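help with this record:
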Amino acid sequence: MRGASKPSRIFGISIRLHYTWVLALALIAAIMVTQFPSSSPLWQRASLGIATGLLFFISITAREFILNLIAIVRGIPVRRTTLLIFGGVPQISKESTRPLLEILMAITGLLTTLIIGGVFYGIYAALINSGSVVIAGLIQWLAFIFFMLFIFHFVPGFPLDGGKILRALLWRLTDNYERATRIASWCGWTAGWLCVALGILLMVTELQWLNGLLLAGTGWVLQGAATKSRRQAKLLEALKRIKAQDIMSRQSPLISPETTVSQVIHDYILATGHRHLIVADDGKFLGIATINNIKRVPKKRRGSHIGRTMTPSSELNTAQPQQSAASLLGQMDEMGIDYMPVLEDDTVVGIVTRDHLIRLAQNLAELGM
């Protein structure tokens, strides 16, 4: 997502942080400064405000980590998650999920939010009984926010949990994933702008500047995420109309398995710039040799045959000439691969690379097609 940080890995799960988190944490800290008694020193109130913001951030991160972990356990590969103030937007391909599974994951998200709110409320009750009033106030605010998030996520607008349920239902009814995403994202876009309007209204009529800014900011992030999802759905529909045979590279060299690694480097990779080479013997497809395969070969062993270094055909995911570009991109996302050979009657007729698909998608987006 545009405006997100470089991905960081937490227990193998890639998470990107949206830039609006900086503003959100500052607003939360400022709100909490006004909640604590004015008799307390400013530095103390500011410290408690920052602690509240960090606890909120950690809790949202934990929520998304739990949901991603559940998805992985269920066999749904999550390439990365962009963390927003109201939750995360995981990158999951259509091929790896189904309507019912998406509904179950959305319900899990709702329950996780409710449980986190309940845990904070339990801690708040225990602190009140022990006489820790100041810290109890901090925890009470977090409990309140998570209960509000629980209600907020019922809004049927993608990428909120309610929107995910709406998309899954529309997908089930229409059997059109992209159209369902567009409709649910439009609802999310509308809900986002309503939040912006309500936030401004809160600032103007009630003079609640900080709370109004937080609500308006949340709405702004929601409409931005919904807009991106809608554009991606439109792009996937365009990619559906393009076939593998229309975009595959037909110029990948055909080399013998007896060719040495050194020959491949000098005669093909350096001379022509090709990074994916088809290995065949008397027309029979044996495998693909890539620059990544060759990089693993020590310099002393570059006199060995490429047939020992290539990825054999039995380990490759292959495509058909009539397969859509959208399907190819989905498979590559799901499998975590960068290329797919295109086969016709057990003969390689070309190669489609992930880089080519991404460039195609960018061109379609810029041309508005």
